Amino acid sequence: MTVVTVFRSRLRDGVDAAYSEVAERMSRLVETMDGFIDRKFFVASDGERVTLVRFADAAAQRAWAAHPDHVAAQRRGRDEFYECYDISVSDETYSRTYPAPDNL
Hints:
Layout (H helix, E strand, L loop, with lengths): L2 E9 L4 H15 L5 E8 L5 E7 L2 H9 L1 H14 E10 L13
Antiparallel strand pairs: 1-3, 1-4, 2-3
Protein backbone atom coordinates (compact mmCIF):
# COMPACT_ATOMS: atom_id res chain seq x y z
CA MET A 1 0.00 0.00 0.00
CA THR A 2 1.31 3.48 -0.88
CA VAL A 3 2.42 5.74 1.97
CA VAL A 4 2.00 9.51 1.66
CA THR A 5 4.08 12.03 3.61
CA VAL A 6 2.72 15.57 3.85
CA PHE A 7 5.30 18.09 5.08
CA ARG A 8 3.97 21.60 5.76
CA SER A 9 6.36 24.36 6.79
CA ARG A 10 7.14 28.04 7.04
CA LEU A 11 10.67 29.36 6.66
CA ARG A 12 12.40 31.90 8.84
CA ASP A 13 13.24 35.22 7.22
CA GLY A 14 16.50 35.37 5.30
CA VAL A 15 17.16 31.64 4.89
CA ASP A 16 15.86 31.09 1.35
CA ALA A 17 19.22 30.61 -0.40
CA ALA A 18 20.72 28.23 2.16
CA TYR A 19 17.44 26.33 2.48
CA SER A 20 17.10 25.96 -1.30
CA GLU A 21 20.53 24.34 -1.51
CA VAL A 22 19.66 21.76 1.16
CA ALA A 23 16.17 21.17 -0.26
CA GLU A 24 17.55 20.55 -3.75
CA ARG A 25 20.09 18.06 -2.39
CA MET A 26 17.35 16.22 -0.45
CA SER A 27 15.09 16.19 -3.52
CA ARG A 28 17.81 14.50 -5.56
CA LEU A 29 18.54 12.04 -2.74
CA VAL A 30 14.94 10.97 -2.12
CA GLU A 31 14.56 10.09 -5.79
CA THR A 32 17.32 7.47 -5.38
CA MET A 33 15.58 5.71 -2.48
CA ASP A 34 14.09 2.25 -3.01
CA GLY A 35 10.32 2.53 -2.95
CA PHE A 36 10.21 6.23 -3.87
CA ILE A 37 7.26 6.96 -6.19
CA ASP A 38 7.07 10.74 -6.60
CA ARG A 39 7.09 14.12 -4.92
CA LYS A 40 5.45 17.49 -5.43
CA PHE A 41 6.18 20.85 -3.86
CA PHE A 42 3.89 23.87 -3.53
CA VAL A 43 4.09 27.33 -1.97
CA ALA A 44 0.86 29.05 -0.95
CA SER A 45 0.32 32.80 -1.30
CA ASP A 46 0.63 33.15 2.49
CA GLY A 47 4.11 31.57 2.47
CA GLU A 48 3.18 28.09 3.67
CA ARG A 49 5.19 25.42 1.88
CA VAL A 50 3.83 21.92 1.25
CA THR A 51 5.77 18.89 0.08
CA LEU A 52 3.98 15.64 -0.79
CA VAL A 53 6.08 12.50 -1.12
CA ARG A 54 4.77 9.05 -1.97
CA PHE A 55 6.53 5.79 -1.20
CA ALA A 56 5.64 2.23 -2.16
CA ASP A 57 5.30 1.13 1.47
CA ALA A 58 5.94 2.06 5.09
CA ALA A 59 9.40 0.47 5.11
CA ALA A 60 10.50 2.71 2.24
CA GLN A 61 9.13 5.78 4.01
CA ARG A 62 10.88 4.85 7.26
CA ALA A 63 14.15 4.28 5.40
CA TRP A 64 13.91 7.80 4.02
CA ALA A 65 13.05 9.27 7.42
CA ALA A 66 16.11 7.54 8.92
CA HIS A 67 18.60 8.16 6.08
CA PRO A 68 21.68 9.80 7.70
CA ASP A 69 21.84 12.69 5.22
CA HIS A 70 18.12 13.33 5.64
CA VAL A 71 18.43 13.21 9.44
CA ALA A 72 21.22 15.81 9.24
CA ALA A 73 19.05 18.01 6.98
CA GLN A 74 16.14 17.64 9.41
CA ARG A 75 18.35 18.81 12.27
CA ARG A 76 19.59 21.75 10.24
CA GLY A 77 15.99 22.58 9.33
CA ARG A 78 15.00 22.77 13.00
CA ASP A 79 18.12 24.71 13.98
CA GLU A 80 18.32 27.15 11.05
CA PHE A 81 15.47 27.15 8.56
CA TYR A 82 12.00 26.48 9.91
CA GLU A 83 9.79 28.87 11.78
CA CYS A 84 7.39 25.93 12.14
CA TYR A 85 6.46 22.67 10.44
CA ASP A 86 4.27 19.62 10.74
CA ILE A 87 4.53 16.18 9.20
CA SER A 88 1.75 13.72 8.51
CA VAL A 89 2.41 10.18 7.27
CA SER A 90 -0.58 8.14 6.11
CA ASP A 91 -1.46 4.95 4.31
CA GLU A 92 -3.21 5.69 1.05
CA THR A 93 -6.57 3.95 1.27
CA TYR A 94 -7.86 4.86 -2.16
CA SER A 95 -6.30 6.00 -5.40
CA ARG A 96 -7.69 6.70 -8.85
CA THR A 97 -5.90 8.30 -11.77
CA TYR A 98 -7.36 9.94 -14.84
CA PRO A 99 -5.89 10.70 -17.31
CA ALA A 100 -2.98 8.32 -17.65
CA PRO A 101 -0.13 9.16 -15.21
CA ASP A 102 2.29 10.28 -17.95
CA ASN A 103 -0.16 13.09 -18.82
CA LEU A 104 -0.05 14.58 -15.31
